[in-house]
Amino acid sequence: MQSAIFDTPVLKVESLKTKFDTVVVSNSFIALIGDYVEAIFFQQLHYWSLSEYGVVIDDTRWIYKPLREWLSEVFYFLTEWKLRKAIASLLEKGLIERKKLYVKHHEIKHDNPYWNPKNQTYYYSVNYDKLQELIERVENQENPKTIENIRVEDSTKLSVEEFKDTKCCE
Hints:
By secondary structure, the chain is α+β, with helices and mostly antiparallel strands. The protein has seven helices and six strands.
C-alpha cells in the first residue's frame, strides 16, 4: 500500500486523510482578506456553496455544521479559538452571515414533539455583495497591498533612533 501520493499537484498522506482532505486558497484571495485562516474558512464556504452542499432557505444557500465538525473534518490543524476568531472577524467585516436556522430548516413547529430548542447549530452563508465591495475598494486604492510593494525591515538591527523614524504602518 502506498502511504503517500507524489504524482499529483497536491501532496497527500493516505494514513492522515480526512473527509475534506484538500483545502485550496489562492494567495491573491489571502492578500485580499488579510488573514490566512479567514481566507480558508471563506473559501471552504464558497466551495460548498458552489457544490450545492448544505441547504437553501429563503433563496440563500446555507452551510450548517457544528464547530466541532469544522475542526475535526476540515480545520483539524486549527485551535477552536483561532477558528472562532476568524469567523468573528468575517462576520464583523460582513463577508459571511450566520444564523440559527435549525427549526426553519426542518420545518419544525414549537408544538412538534421533535422540536429541540437546544440545537444551536449555526448556518453560514457567503455575502458576495460585501466581497465585491471589498474587491472594488482594494482595486480603487492608489497603492494597493501587493507582495511587490510591502516594505519589510528587520527591526532587530535598528537602533532606538532609527526605529522611531521607521514607518511601520501607513
